[in-house]
DNA sequence: TGTTTTGTTATTGTCCTACAAGTTTGTTAG
DNA sequence: CTAACAAACTTGTAGGACAATAACAAAACA
């Protein structure tokens, strides 16, 4: 699939924010028709990974300082809602124990330096929390790939230290969910995003698009 | 544009939730190629107006009871954020006076029974509030058309009485924005959505998809 | 030299046709 | 009435053609 391949390429640096995606290149690269490529590009745009303008084609998104602030403001609100709903609505105890298991595995992966695997597991943990929230619409919003662009563009922020801090937040959220404390879960999820937002805003200008 | 035409058709009942959208019909109806139709359908799906499944094509979305609850939970969070940011960040006084003018005009349109015009103005008021929030990402989320489906499917809820209640909420939000009261603006915007959600949940089963 | 104009090229937007893959509908036999 | 089968329809995908536009390079001019 073109979309997942570009995502993967974004992770390991083959694609970088701002890069142009030319249709004819992609048809050759993936051996598919132009229609298929165009559909993939549209999907990428809908999910926030690229921006397109008329007769100019698609580029991988590149955030300005304000742009990433705006995105993370919304992400914070959505993450908070997810935490709250998970705490207030989760019923399945087996999902919760599975979540605890995933968190501990993430801890191992981080310490082992398995960055790609831990990024994937991190995503699946967020997905699991969204599942606890029993809200299907969250799944329509969650796989938005703009988060992947943020991680690619501000890679320095997502180091092992940040990962450990995130891990701690995951543990706290899980406790709040178990305690059915909606306020606590919301606040923790929000802090989890805001910590990232603050770290990014502290970066110097050269990390941002202009 | 196909998208806007279908939106319009959804408003005045030519398209109804659950209805199938066949590519060949649309090519004839709009006199465009199949590729163009497919792109339009994809855009509609990305924006939540239709759902598509493999080899079965696209249908206009039809909400279950839980589905619309889920959607409005998220809408409430986003609307709350919009209100908060508008109160905390708005600087331009001319935008504010223009907003006040739009609200008064909406009042006139509602009393005159101009339902389509008032629906459009209502949308542009929400847009104006989002503009006050100074967050470009909100504009990427706002034009999601799933709200149009909700209005089409649960039409009875959006009557003149509801419109007047909304109007009152708009006035309150504007006051909170002028007072730079983020908490008040957030709460009012949230109530504004929740009122709709509650009204919809009170409808009998036959209004919902199963 | 620097700037404006013009022409070339590359890319996208849209259309068309064709065929394979899959779903839905209709028919017939049991 | 049900199940199996066949036909018709719809979608998914490939590939080609053409016009519209943008990006770039070259030429003309001040």
Provide an overview of this structure:
The structure is a homodimer of 210-residue chains. With 210 residues, chain A is mainly α. The first copy, chain A, contains 10 helices and 3 strands; from the N terminus they run H-E-H-H-E-E-H-H-H-H-H-H-H. The first copy, chain A, has a 3-stranded antiparallel β-sheet. In chain A, a hairpin with a 3-residue loop joins strand 2 (50-53) and strand 3 (57-60). In chain A, helix 4 runs antiparallel to helix 10. The radius of gyration of chain A is 18 Å and the shape is globular. In chain A, 32% of the residues are buried. The mean pLDDT of chain A is 93. The interface between A and B is medium-sized, with 25 and 25 residues. Chain B binds a DNA duplex (30 and 30 nucleotides) through residues 22-24, 32-36, 38-39, 54-57.
Descriptive terms for the model:
3 strands; 5% strand; 70% helix; homodimer; DNA-binding; globular; mainly alpha; 210 residues
């Amino acid at each position: 699939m073109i979309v997942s391949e570009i995502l993967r390429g974004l992770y390991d640096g083959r694609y970088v924010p701002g890069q142009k995606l030319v249709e004819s290149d992609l048809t050759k690269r993936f051996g598919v028709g132009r229609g298929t490529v165009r559909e993939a590009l549209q999907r990428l745009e809908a999910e926030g990974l690229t921006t397109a303008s008329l007769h100019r084609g698609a580029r991988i998104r590149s955030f300005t300082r304000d742009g990433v602030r705006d995105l993370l403001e919304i992400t914070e609100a959505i993450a908070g809602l997810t935490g709250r709903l998970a705490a207030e609505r989760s019923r399945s105890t087996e999902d919760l124990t599975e979540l605890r298991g995933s968190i501990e595995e993430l801890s191992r992966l981080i310490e082992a330096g398995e960055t790609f695997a831990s990024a994937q597991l991190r995503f699946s943990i967020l997905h699991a929390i969204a599942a606890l929230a029993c809200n299907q619409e969250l799944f329509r919003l969650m796989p938005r790939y703009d988060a992947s662009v943020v991680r690619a563009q501000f890679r320095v922020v997502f180091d092992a230290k940040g990962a450990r801090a995130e891990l701690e937040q995951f543990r706290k959220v899980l406790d709040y969910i178990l305690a059915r404390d909606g306020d606590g879960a919301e606040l923790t999820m929000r802090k989890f995003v805001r910590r990232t937002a603050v770290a990014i805003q502290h970066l110097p200008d050269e990390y941002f698009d202009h």
